[in-house]
Amino acid sequence: MAAIVAAIFLSVPAVEAREPAAGKHVFILSGQSNMAGMDPGVSFTPAVTKAFGKDRVLVVKDAHSGQSIRSWCKSNHEFPPPTTGRVPKVRGELYGRLIGKVKAATEGQTLQSVTLVWMQGESDLNNTAYDAYLQELLEQLQADLAFEEINLVIGRISDSGLDREKRLAGRLNIRRIQQEFAEAHPRGAWVDTDDLNDRKEGDKVVNDLHYHAEGYRILGARFAARAIELIERERPGTPASMPVTYVDRRLSNGIISVEFDEEGGFSIHDAPSNEALLSDSRFWLARGKRGKLVGMTAEDVEDALGIGKRVVLEVADFNELGYWGRPGRLYAHRIYTYALYDNNPA
Predict the structure, then answer these.
(1) Taking the alpha carbons of 32, 47, 59, 234 in that order, is the dihedral positive or negative?
(2) Distance in angstroms (rounded) separating the CA atoms of residues 30 and 154
(3) For helices 93-106 and 130-145, angle between their N-to-C axes, nearest 10 degrees
(4) Which fold has domain 24-235?
(5) ∠8-136-96 over CA atoms, to 5°?
(6) For helices 44-52 and 213-233, what crossing angle results, to 10°?
(7) pLDDT band at residue 198, thresholds of 50, 70 and 90?
(8) Are the C-beta atoms of residues 85 and 74 closer than 8 Å to each other?
């Protein structure tokens, strides 16, 4: 099968900073019991209010204990559909409640940023497509709010139950997916909760399913810190506001090419000289909706393109490709960014 060639363009960003639009920063807090147990007024809302101003912040929370992510998503992504575990009678019922609250809070408002803060997963230990449901939840919000660039902060489920064999594989799987999904999302982050659920029984430390009061306070503060970080990353006047990159003059006209093979591998070349820059990496795809470059570390990018650069990788073309032994279209149209800065990029 013929290789697929895609172009990647590196261009010079605008130098002047612009004043941010005077819109609202919307924070959507949802999930199951550990989100329900967190009072945003204790630490989350004060932190984001301090960062952006009271009149610029909207915090909407809707959380429900003991619920699967399936209750927030309108579609089924498991085949065959599950018949055991937390399977709701009505798919997406809780999403309807959530988006109703969000729309009521944002009616007539101009939105500058939207951030989903998600704390859920313990009720999905048998879920074989948790990442697909996360993607659908984001896409539902994008469509219903007419806002494409939604930030995502995931609270990775805690270490409760990791000392027991029962459902251990499911717990480890959800923790892995949550971390990988957040790291793959260009506007994503995750927070660790392993230290928020500790309590003592005599001399023994027990990792509870739920957190203690101080744990919930810390959780809110951690969520706020990561949300603020994601928003600040895009604010004009900061290095991360640069839309693309400084051109690396070692590359011909600032253009490099990516070649995909039928096995899903790829290599990056200087175009048109075709000098290999990176290879032996993999292009990872999840149900045709999102992708990331796996095996391509920050050091790899730094060595190839130079430190102090922000690199936007955009696949400009793609063709039919058999992937994992199944025919289908290689969907790699979404932009994924690597941002590498020194203190004074030149």
Answers:
(1) negative
(2) 10
(3) 30
(4) Rossmann fold (3.40.50)
(5) 145
(6) 30
(7) low
(8) no
| φ, ψ at 54 (rounded to 5°) | -60, -40
- Which pair of tokens denotes residue 25? 């920063």
Q: How do residues 266-306 score in pLDDT, each as one tens digit?
A: 444 444 444 444 333 323 222 222 333 334 444 444 454 44
Phi/psi for 64 (5° steps) reads: -140, 125
Side chain identity at residue 301, one-letter code = V
Percent of the chain predicted with pLDDT > 70? 55
Sheet holding 150-155, edge to edge: 57-63, 24-31, 111-119, 150-155, 188-191
Domain positions in the chain are 4-16+243-339, 24-235
- Placement of tokens 């929370």 in the chain: 61
Residue 131 pLDDT grade (very low, low, confident, very high; cuts 50, 70, 90): very high
- CA 331 → CA 37, 134, 292, 300, 342, distances in Å? 39, 18, 12, 24, 33
pLDDT at 126 over 70: yes
SS (H, E, C) 104-123: HHHCCCCEEEEEEEEECCHH
Q: Which residue has the tokens 């051109």?
A: 247
Contact, 69 vs 130, CB < 8 A? Answer: yes
Query: Which residue do the tokens 């967190």 mark?
Result: 38
Dihedrals phi, psi of 147, to nearest 5 degrees: -140, 110
What the block records as the tokens of 329 is 């279209």
Q: Could you identify the residue written with the tokens 């003991």?
A: 66
CA–CA distances in Å: residue 8 to residues 166, 331, 337: 47, 16, 12
